[in-house]
Amino acid sequence: MKETKRKTRTGVVVSNKMNKTVVVAVEQRFRHPVYGKVVRKTPRFYAHDAKNECQEGDLVRIAECRPLSKLKRWRVVEIIKKAQ
Questions:
Q1: pLDDT digits (tens, 9 = 90+) for 3-40
Q2: CB burial class (10 A; 0-12, 13-18, 19+) of residue 39?
Q3: How many of the other CB atoms lie within 10 Å of CB of 75?
Q4: Global confidence as pTM
């Protein structure tokens, strides 16, 4: 069987008010195809935080997983940097 590589993203926790769930904002920067200006897009992902370890401002790595609820399709893999 071939194992697929799951997508990973790195972003900042912007909300941890839910139980075992965090909202992670991932900033994407790209050059506009026609005008050439650098554009920022910041999608927000709902991620599963099993131990409720993440705090607002933490830099985290999230990975794709099976659907865990209506909105959660990602899980927290590691906390890269804790917020002060």
A1: 668 999 999 999 999 999 999 999 999 999 999 999 99
A2: exposed
A3: 16
A4: 0.88
Tokens describing residue 58 = 């933490």
- Dist. CA 18–CA 20, nearest whole Å: 6
Neighbours of 47 (CB within 10 A): 27
- Does 3.40.50.150 match the CATH number of domain 8-81? no
Task: Provide the residue ranges of all domains of the chain, joining segments of one domain with +.
Answer: 8-81
Looking up tokens 């804790």 gives: 82
Q: With CA atoms as reference, report the closest residue to 54 among 81, 27, 26.
A: 81
Q: Contact 44/25 with Cβ under 8 angstroms?
A: yes
Bridge partners (DSSP) listed for residue 61: 10, 78
Instruction: Find the distance separating the first CA and the last CA of the chain, reported in whole Å.
Output: 44
Total count of residues recorded for the chain? 84
